[in-house]
Amino acid sequence: MPETYRGLGLVFLYPETWTLEESLEDEAAILLESPEGAFMTITQLPSEQGPREAVEKASQVMIEEYEEVETEDIVRHFGELKMDGVQQRFIYLDLVISSQILAFKTQDWTYVIQIQGEDRDIDKLNIVFDAVITSAMQSLP
Prior knowledge:
Elements: E1 3-7, E2 10-14, E3 19-23, E4 28-33, E5 39-46, H1 51-65, E6 70-78, E7 81-92, E8 95-105, E9 109-118, H2 119-138
Antiparallel strand pairs: 1-2, 3-4, 4-5, 5-9, 6-7, 7-8, 8-9
């Protein structure tokens, strides 16, 4: 039976075996983690910060944190909502890590979504992450 999250102006379903943590401190955000360790964060920012700017800022943090980050622009569609973002890959502890950073804007907020995990886990879990994001998009006005 899926769990339901309500907060940050979103409502979505997620697998009951996954953990969810919410932080309302500096930036309002949630962390949704799979049992394998792959995760998705959704960060809520003021709408004055546009999606492209938010993606570039998050991407730059990854580049500064990890060596030799490969970055390419991507576009994802969830229903009628188009999200621009970046796909990044890098090596960490001898593992290939894949990270997607996407952003979209509502009337009140800009949201940044980051999906990250080992390449082999992300390949298996992308369908679940996509379902969670689609569920969240359906809750938007």
